[in-house]
Structures
1.
Amino acid sequence: MKRDFGLAAAAGTELVLATSGDEKHPPENIVDGNTETFWITTGMFPQEFILRFPELIKISCVKIHCYNVRRLSIEKSTEKDPVDFEPLAKSELERSEEQLQLEEFSLDGTRATHLRFVIKSGFDHFVSVHKVTIEGTEEPT
């Protein structure tokens, strides 16, 4: 059964690390399912965040809604802890004036317990991540 693992409350996905934080725009906003809330970075690059899934999943697609992100990479881990990450995808995003960027990665069944998103550069000193959606299926244990 295909599930949306990008929403923490719905699927047990946890944000386990973010390299910066702001009280008004905390990193937990990335997984609340709402594009009106967001995590804002503190102005230096790279910035990153790590999502942990409740179990090993087979990922078909990752979507990220963000603003002012220029270069982004995604890495995966299949370990119990967020270690031993391997490159998965990368993208140079196009600047979008006054609207969110939407970048979609088709991953064709990649298996992971964690995903690390690394924002390598932005179009401004500050970037924001509004929503991450991961579509996939649980792997039998």
2.
Amino acid sequence: MSGSLVVCEVDESLKEKLKKFRFRKETTNAAILIKIDMEKQLVILEEEYEDISIEDLRDELPERQPRFIVYSYKYVHSDGRVSYPLCFIFCSPMGCKPSQQMMYAGSKNRLVQAAELTKIFETRNADDLTEEWLKNQLSFFR
């Protein structure tokens, strides 16, 4: 069974982009939207967003295709401290082609490793992507 799982390579320019994104100095929310080029079997940059809420980002996602999101979020803690966690979100909505879902699922760990991320979240429903959902996910990382 595992022989049929396709693990895609991560595009070198995307790796560079992710490295720069990790050390960005801006204090606004920002995102990198990532997709898989199915023909080349390559994980590539789809779009970059500056100063975007998670709800606005949700509206940018395709309805029936999986996507990877790297989201830099301005997180105000209950004690007033501010941090900027880098979140990896795998959105694989219901109704995706099984072949697409398998390719994304098989490539997720390689992308997470390339981006050196530790806050990894998944959702099967893009409607889940709200600030409340994100804060709830981040609450496990106190």
